[in-house]
Amino acid sequence: MSQSKIQQRSSDSAQELGDETFMSATELSNYMKQTEMAKASKDVGSSGRTDKAREELIKSLLQPVIVTPEKIAEVKRRVLGQLRTAAGKGDKEVLVMRFPNALCTDKGRALNNLEKDWPSTLIGRPLQAFEFWRDHLKPQGYGLKAMIVDWPQGLPGDIGFFLTWGDAKR
């Protein structure tokens, strides 16, 4: 059966749904294929914008923050606010940073495999965030949990840094 006849029959079937006539299995399969193709086309159209935004984010996160006593105090205030909000909800961890795996020299492989030296793969602001935790928060008893937080198409995606305390401390 030609594609145009299938589309016509599918269209006829869709019009008959109000009369409680349903598509055949073949028509339903064709409908599913068309829906998947439309979704893929839509995803492709938006992926260019997404890729550009991701590249811009990576570029900005590669630029180090100038560390001054004022900047340290500002970051501490912001983190303290996040910690208080989380603790008020009864949480024992809070996501303090999320970044693309491109900011690890190995795309997050060492982190995902729980290798002891995973911090040596960090670059840019994620490295600065790790150093901030190590120098300012770890001595106060906070833990840092780092993990892959999403898996697009089954591959490691973004990485999250979570500050932990109490039983959740690692």
Can you describe what's shown?
The protein has 170 residues and is mainly alpha-helical. The longest helix is centred in the first third of the chain and has 38 residues, at 25-62. It is globular and about 65 Å long. Helix content is 53%, strand content 11%. Residues 1-23 have low confidence and may be disordered. It contains five helices and three strands. It has a three-stranded antiparallel beta sheet with strand order 1-3-2. It has helices at residues 3-16, 25-62, 69-88, 109-112, 124-137, and strands spanning 93-99, 143-148, 159-164. Helix 1 (3-16) packs across helix 2. It has two domains: 3-62, no CATH class; 69-168, no CATH class. The chain starts with a helix and ends in a 6-residue tail after the last strand.
Descriptive tags:
mainly alpha; 5 helices; 11% strand; globular
Short précis:
This protein has 170 residues and is mainly α. The protein is 53% helix and 11% strand. The N and C termini lie far apart (62 Å).
What is Rg?
24 Å
The class by helix and strand makeup works out as mainly alpha
Strand order of the largest sheet: 1-3-2
Let me know the largest β-sheet: 3 strands, antiparallel
Please estimate the helix content: 40-55%
List low-pLDDT spans. Answer: 1-23
Envelope shape: globular
Number of domains: 2
Q: In percent terms, what proportion of residues is strand?
A: 5-15%
